[in-house]
Amino acid sequence: MKTWLITGGSSGLGRQLAEAVAARGDRLVATARFIETLQPLCERYPETVRGISLDVTRPGDAARAVALAESAFGGLDVLVNNAGFGFIGAIEEGEPAEYRPMFEVNLFGLIETTRAALPALRKRAGARIVNLSSGAGIAGSAGFGFYNASKFAVEGLSEALADELRPLGVSVIIVEPGPFRTEFLGGSMATAAQEIPAYAETVPARRHYRQTNNGRQAGDPAKAVAVMLRAVDAQHPPLHLPLGPRAHAIAERKLDAFRADMSAWRDISIATDFDTRG
Q1: Domain limits of the chain?
Q2: pTM (whole model) above 0.85
């Protein structure tokens, strides 16, 4: 029986994961900005689920959630950094007031929640940190630049964290979902107010994708959660976990393009050390 702490547990994959964790009998501290959204889950599992308000951008909230896990259940085994939202707009179109809040949640909130949880996690052999990235954290694309940047940062941070925690017996899993049928393209996606005609060939397609695919995504969230649970339970969990065929295709294209660039420029770009020949 594991004890979990999940951020952003009121919707999307976070809510699906919270439901699955509770249903299988694990202990859970479910969190959301508005605690009333968690009440039905807490009432269904009064012995094993606790709810608490957590805004990952608000100082002290994460520490209080970790303290609840320790006081109610004696510790913490799994932290899931799920809270986050997206943003569509060309780099030139986005304004700081539009994109900076996304970084506060997707990156800085994740960092501070992780820092608050690490002392508790380090006490548990086999503890896990699950960081929700995205297929957009694997490769950048027009219109998603700011969101790409936030998730690329999560990827780099998670890889470094995995290296730091490996000797301590704590594993990190970076979950990289493709499109799943959640609320992500709806209330969890912001859009730049400004539209610059120069980007008409690229960015409007992203806006159109949001409008036409919300609620029609091919991915089944329940199947995604089943894979996530299996990864958390694995003796040797993966560091990178692309979810769904779209995410795998993004990763494969990125690797192919990366290798092609390296191969084409290898002889020139590798010859940059000082000449040590006499």
Answers
A1: 3-266
A2: yes
Bridge partners, residue 121, by sequence = none
Question: What was the pLDDT predicted at 268?
Answer: 95
Give the residue from 114, 80, 110, 112 showing the smallest Cα distance to 2. 80
Catalytic residues: 133, 147, 151
Q: Other CB atoms closer than 10 Å to residue 246's CB: what's the count?
A: 17
Please write the tens of the pLDDT for every residue from 35-76.
999 999 999 999 999 999 999 999 999 999 999 999 999 999
Instruction: Return d(Cα 98, Cα 180) in angstroms, integer.
Output: 24
* Residue range 222-251, pLDDT digits in tens: 999 999 999 999 999 999 999 999 999 999
- Select from 227, 269, 241, 225 the least CA-distant residue to 16: 225
Nearest to 134 by CA among 110, 116, 115, 155: 155
Q: What CATH topology corresponds to 3-266?
A: Rossmann fold (3.40.50)
The amino acid that residue 239 corresponds to is: L
Beta bridge partner(s), residue 4: 28, 78
Measured CA distances, 156 to 14, 106, 117, 174 (Å): 22, 13, 19, 10
